[in-house]
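Same chain as my last thread, 248 residues:
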Amino acid sequence: MVQLYSDPEFLVETVAQYVGSGLKLGEAAIVIARPEHRARFARALEREQLYPSPALRMLDATGELPGWTAFHQAVGGTIAELRLQYPAVRIYAEMVDIFWQRGEQKAAIRLEEFWNELGKLQTFSLLCAYGIDPLEASSYGAAFDAVCRCHTHLIPTRDYARFNEAVNDASEEVLDPPLAQMLLKLAASHRPHTEMPRGQAALIWLKQNMPRTADRVLEEVRNRLLGKPALAAVSPAANPIVPARLEP
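reply #2:
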């Protein structure tokens, strides 16, 4: 499971809920994060009287890519130790994002592969996070697709229904409504294997197949979610909107 975020509060809410839910169920948790994030997670869990806890391990997310053996021994060893005392282990890890933010996407994907290999050997649930804005056109590409392939679920927003509605309405704003619905249905039939809101799947498909149109849709989605005027509301007489056509 992976979360995309541009708002740190969204990250804190998600991690606190994910880790806190496990602790309330009697499970153990491991948090591998930057110092400033660990402090914010701890405060959020403390408000729920879940921190400190012997079932919770807070570890530093380093900026060095370990070899498989070192990774297996350090992380796998901690999981094995906790599983002796607790029925399940939840992990939040953001080491991958440190590499991503430094432009070292290959290292991030390699570490994701380590997590997947470890998942074949030991039982745990994993939440990763990337400081990626899903409404920025520059966020998309081969590396983004690789991140999706490494996870079972993608969480790009708090409110899936509002996100889906914004993508639908933005697509109809940029395209003819019938064309927009046809393309959204086509995108739905080519969804990635990763579970995600249908609006996010549609944006990925548009970016892969109609990049210029996708950029306009992304801009309009951002405007709608942030409460900015829609395209049709901005001087319609002076700036008539010409519906986009299928890209060659």
